[in-house]
Amino acid sequence: MNNFEYCVPTKVIFGRDTQKRAGEIIREYGFRKVMIHYGGGSVKRSGLLDQVTSSLEEAGIEYILFGGVQANPTLSKALEGMEICRRENVDFILAVGGGSVIDSAKCIADGTPNPEIDPWKYFMKEAVPPKALPHGNILTLSASGSETSQSCVITNEENGLKRGFNCPTHRPLFAVCNPELTFTVSRFQTGCGTVDILMHTLERYLGGTTKDTALTDRIAEGLMKAVIEAGTAADLNPEDYEARATLMWAGSLSHNDLTGLGREVMMTVHQLEHELSGKYPEVAHGAGLSALFCSWARYVCGDDPMRFAQLAVRVWDVEMNFENPLKTALDGIQRMEDYFKSLNMPVRLTELEADVKDEDFDEMAEKCTNFGRRVLPGIRELGKHEMMDIYRMAL
């Protein structure tokens, strides 16, 4: 087991009707003016936005509204938010939505008090924010885990790059998590979320060559089995509270570093997918992951068949073939692919809502190597040639 540091300071307020406590929670911190950041019209149609604003009004807290965040949140929207926060003297950002809204809020929080720094430099690993606005969230989609994580992913439309940036400033002060708010999430988005939660743990589980992480392995395996069961239950009955609760809590645990402690962590398939949805913004992140993951797994599993076989046996209930562990590994990957299909998730790039073309793979792989400046580590190192092989396998 590798050395590690683990600190997740986000306070989680979990359960029914917890969104109605927004004003009370924020008042306890002493904030005076809040930006409520959200996406499209769903928070209005559902009445959630009215509940939040009423709660703030009852607590005597001033607020402004800033909506319009899209899937795969953009730098331009975040820059707009930074200007509003400075002009309006906002001292707290409340994200109401899923991972895209929360990531946009994190970017705004990083940039607002540091106008002298181009915020894109954070995502290019050229600078870190000296300070940031505090922020919290009311979660409406179980998927990204951004509600408690230190990660933030933003797309720069000018250069077509989608990049992630981890920083302690990204840990929200609090996350309000009411599973009931996810009852109306579409089947497709529920499936995307289930995939994303699984991937955050799978990519830690399969992320490197570290041995002797028995406890972390068991935590990860238990979480994945629970998500697999809950994903199926929520797919069959969108208002299954216990299934939705499992997915919501698992989303936070899957990406707040717990399921990878003591191991190397490189989200290889996430990196490949960032170039996919950076090139084709209409591709939902979870759908891109499901379309790529099994091809990546088949491409690299021969380099560590016992690790993939352990996953197959413990999570997918495949019988161990001691004479041919690679067969066990491949059987496990097939069961994973079948599970994605059962949720109506794509398992090939041609099944996505985008016209993905082979001629784009060179550009995508070049960007994924940071224009030749990196090789992705992992069970098998991936350079540009290997990345293009995986994109083609997934086509």
Automatic annotation (TrEMBL):
Pfam families: ADH_Fe_C, Fe-ADH. GO terms for molecular function: alcohol dehydrogenase (NADP+) activity; butanol dehydrogenase (NAD+) activity; metal ion binding; methylglyoxal reductase (NADPH) (acetol producing) activity. InterPro entries: ADH_Fe/GldA, ADH_Fe_C, BDH-like. Gene3D superfamilies: 3.40.50.1970, Dehydroquinate synthase-like - alpha domain. One of its GO terms (cellular component) is cytosol. Residues 193-394 form the Fe-containing alcohol dehydrogenase-like C-terminal domain. It comes from the Bacteria. Residues 9-179 form the Alcohol dehydrogenase iron-type/glycerol dehydrogenase GldA domain. Keywords: Oxidoreductase. This is Uncharacterized protein. It comes from Hungatella effluvii. The lineage of its organism: Bacteria, Bacillati, Bacillota, Clostridia, Lachnospirales.
